[in-house]
Design a protein that fits this description.
five-stranded mixed beta sheet; 10 helices; globular; four-stranded antiparallel beta sheet; disordered C terminus
Length: about 400
């Protein structure tokens, strides 16, 4: 089995190397936006778009002009990689198999600044050689295994990082565990397991309160003044801290879960649809817009999609598996009698079946139902449980009616 993974390290830069990195990232961003604008114009006029070979020819022509000769300052391969990434983005946009396909968008200065080197770099201990920049030290926190394929330099806040992608060949793994667990994602709890264990949500309220205070100060400053830039930098650093906390927490939790269970069952949640705005339009105004906005913010802050991605590739590497089941009515269905009724869900945390009287925490009920659907999916490929629920309910009703009478 061949896998690809990346090691990310913080670079120890100085003023000179940072200036070069800003310039290279800016040139890549300019080329992306110019090539994208050219293709969007052709789409508007119902003309075929330009792919990598044509765009590469145009980029060489632009570098020879007086207006865009600054592109010569960047290593040629960084510009070529940018065009290849744009080419891939357009192919994904027109690929019907892509679930989240969309037309590429323009890049903004200071947002995800990066550039890539597919070749010409060297690694030597705790330093890396980058074309036109020379040797740069980095903070090597762990050893690099595998064959290095490419490196990407990116900026996060005020620091620059290098991501080293490697290719590693492994024997087909066999998971050390044989257990199966159901996971119910939530708002009050980050997730609840079918065995009763749960994790509290990621709490970053302290940083969010500081951001609010800084944003009030920022609103009173003259835009783009020195004081405005200083406060803006503080806000960016706090957002970076929040992202790092989320990333670190989800990595640790997904690693523990992946090491403990060979089969993990998750709800197939459509997060993009769940977090749509409730504002509506001019004709049909939405309801409870403020409440829905708060719920959307909480869901996105917890990083459900990131957690799912971490579990998928970690299970793949360890020989386990992740199953996705229908999330409908998992918190309204009794795990004992399979009776489905919204009245059974008394509150956010209370569940009491109106038919058999089973009482349990609502999140644990959801996790048990997720696990049950995972078992049915493995045994007979059952994805629509409505028929099973109705059959189980009728059978239990027949059994309970004489006793009630």
């Amino acid at each position: 089995m061949i896998i690809r993974k990346a090691y990310k390290y913080r670079l120890n830069t100085n003023a000179e190397t940072e200036q070069l990195m800003v310039q290279y990232a800016g040139n890549c961003r300019f080329l992306w936006n110019k090539a994208l604008g050219l293709n969007l114009h052709r789409l508007e006029n119902k003309q075929p778009i330009l792919w990598y070979q044509e765009l590469d020819w145009f980029s060489k022509l632009w570098k020879k002009s007086n207006e865009y000769e600054f592109l010569k300052l960047s290593p040629a391969q960084t510009l070529q990689q940018t065009l290849k990434q744009l080419d891939r983005a357009f192919k994904d946009a027109f690929d019907k198999k892509q679930p989240l396909k969309k037309i590429p968008t323009f890049k903004k200065r200071g947002v995800r600044d990066r550039f890539s080197f597919p070749q010409g770099f060297k690694l030597d201990g705790k330093r890396i050689f980058l074309p036109k920049m020379g040797w740069i030290n980095f903070r090597k926190s762990r050893e690099i295994d595998g064959n290095v394929k490419n490196v990407t330099v990116s900026r996060q806040g005020k620091y620059w990082f290098v991501s080293i992608q490697i290719e590693l060949e492994l024997s087909e793994p066999a998971h050390s565990s044989t257990s199966m667990i159901g996971v119910d994602m939530g708002v009050k709890r980050l997730f609840t397991l079918s065995d009763g264990n749960f994790e509290e949500p990621i709490n970053v309220d302290f940083f969010k309160d500081k951001i609010k205070r800084l944003q009030k100060r920022l609103a009173k400053k003259v835009k783009f003044s020195n004081n405005w830039r200083k406060i803006k930098e503080k806000i960016n650093r706090l957002h970076t801290k929040i992202a790092n906390i989320r990333h670190d927490t989800l990595h640790k939790l997904s690693t523990v879960l992946s090491n403990s269970h060979a089969m993990i069952v998750l709800e197939n949640l459509q997060i993009k649809n769940m977090t749509k705005s409730a504002k509506g339009d001019a004709d049909n105004h939405g309801s409870m817009v403020k409440q829905k906005s708060g719920l959307n913010r909480v869901i996105l802050e917890q990083g459900w999609g990131m957690f799912k991605t971490f579990l998928q590739y970690k299970q793949h590497w360890s020989g386990g598996q992740v199953l996705f089941v229908d999330p409908k009515y998992t918190s309204q269905t009794c795990p004992v009698c399979q009776h489905k009724n919204k009245l059974s869900r008394k509150s956010q945390s209370e569940f009491e079946c109106v038919l058999c009287g089973h009482e349990e925490h609502a999140d644990i009920v959801g996790a048990k139902n997720v696990l049950g659907r995972g078992h049915r999916l493995l045994s007979c490929g059952e994805t629509d449980i409505s028929l099973l629920c109705e059959a189980g309910t009728r059978q239990l009703s027949d059994e309970l009616e004489p006793a009630v009478a």
